């Protein structure tokens, strides 16, 4: 088939040079660390490079050198499967791009838009199933690895101890194996399964999809089904607790085991939420949290459709990266644009009561709940509410730049996005931040992502100059282009497999497993590796108009999703409310002011 035909020709991910990785680490820390502390880190790095580092690098090369993807074997927890954190914390929330043009909030549009979401997602499913989707190219013209499309549908994360497992039951036609043909719909905590593809790989018609949704809502609202306690909330628990509870569920009876299998094998989950939010700034929070009873966080792909027809998506990042969902959403966006006449109010009006009655086939999944499991559900729901309430998410939207303001000046938009973040942080805190950004390794065989530090000496110098009232315009411009160029170079290196974050994480694991004593460089009092970045940022790609919400990867930091697309710039900021030094709302405000402050400066370049 066309989709996966060139997978074998994708290049092998290179193992970075030890000296270069250590140089990157030092560069990222120099401008945001006290001089005395940095001196000690530099000594530790030199000791490691000339001593234990050579041993660890040799082990890494010998144990993974023959693999096309060394990260998989060197970092067994690369997919976060060892993490015991609650699934919402590790998930990625995405606000669908349709909200900005074709599908703004609209009263009573939930079911017709939900039906369209299912219909278009199944179109994309069929492209992968028949392998007719052409290989995707990145902005630089490199073919990306398509492997994760095999994990986009009918994939799930299964809780376990000491680590979780993942599986996918999706198969292409050429695999000569059958594949699941149903989806799961959750409404008011009640879980239904709907068969949406027949045995000949033909998806059911749009009107039949909507009829199924109508029937589900009618059955629940009318009290025609037995109301369960909201089993989905269990997937938001600490992974060890959910693992134990899942075992108890399966041991209760065979029906529970079958219900879990139906959910985990489903093509995807679609949740119909009761929220009617007139403030779209709240959508990123809904995309990560929302109603815990109306979620199943262990699925790779979850669509959430709200009362006013707005759509968000939740991705389980242990299975699939947000960039792959961005491709799906881009396809759906284009299809809606192509068929604008098809998606009008007549769709709803054309559904007669007869059609609804005759085509309804949603089957409710009813679990047998023992008192002990019921208690776990109640605890999970309480904990989920507290967890959702502990996170503050704010959005900065800026649309005052002229069209092509960046492309006409050959400004790298990712560089500009991070220069704004650095300047906004410095303005707010009067110091340089350690900022990590998730960048794609998709041009390599089974590549996923690298974490690139955007904190450079050039960036720090520009930030300080921009806030220096004595600095003249010429110096500001020269400093800007130096920082922009350095970011561009770093981005190229990291996307080419020459980043340091994965490499240092692998060497740290090797050192802990093979050396008698942990090297000074990897001790937390030297570098707090677990909370290295004060701001953890992510984007879905150049020009992508889906914006993403991510939570901080440190207890005292910010999470930050962003995109820059022509005239529209959006930042989605998150923070923990209990951390008094951080405020997502204030930082979003600082980002907006910084964008406004830089407007005339950009035009002067």
TrEMBL record:
Source superkingdom: Eukaryota
Record's GO cellular component terms: peroxisome
Occurrences of domain Choline/carnitine acyltransferase (ranges): 13-591
Keywords: Acyltransferase, Transferase
A Pfam short name: Carn_acyltransf
GO molecular-function terms, A-Z: carnitine O-octanoyltransferase activity
SUPFAM superfamilies found in the cross-reference section: CoA-dependent acyltransferases
Family: Belongs to the carnitine/choline acetyltransferase family.
PANTHER family in UniProt: CARNITINE O-ACYLTRANSFERASE, PEROXISOMAL CARNITINE O-OCTANOYLTRANSFERASE
Name of this protein: Choline/carnitine acyltransferase domain-containing protein
